[in-house]
Design a protein that fits this description.
With about 210 residues, the protein is an alpha+beta fold. Helices cover about 45% and strands about 15% of the residues. The longest helix has 16 residues.
Length: about 210
Amino acid sequence: MQVIEVYADVWCPFTHVGLRRLVEARAERGREDVGIRVRPWPLEIVNGEALAPDFVAEEVEQLRATVAADLFTGFRPRRFPRTTLPALHLAEAAYEAGMDVGEAVSLELRDRLFEWGENLEDPSILARIANEHGLTAHDRSGPDPVLATLAEGRARGVVGSPHFFRRGEGWFCPALDISRVDGHLVITADPEGFTAFLERLLADPPT
């Protein structure tokens, strides 16, 4: 299986859009041979603080206005988690069970947060996801997989969430220009550029 890697955090709305569009493009092109390995990029550690619900709500509002009117339908800032570390650990455990399981859990975690309005800090929600995917509790006495992947990402030059990699090339938050004008968040999208990016990600490797 060919693999696209994405360093990302669960509560990053840009990642939610990017992954959903990537999955859609993969299905349209019949590229079931391409897996998506979402690697943890814990922003609360990278930034030294958790993401604020109001800050993410502003990003969500801009994304819905520019490129994702169909997404974030159930987002509830009041249910925003104070940490995503438990969710990131669950996703890593899912990938240990297989690429398909890990990918499914990574996507579901984001759907539950942004489409269903669930608080991923709730242990019962994470336990339900684990149970539905056949995951069981396991020994975490070894190295922390989230911290290990964070160190690996830094060594690879990861800029932020999401940062895509395939065949030695990397792209950070492709086809979106994010800035602030007079204190207001402004997101300028390049739909054609993003389509070209997806085509490049899903292209067959050179022979």
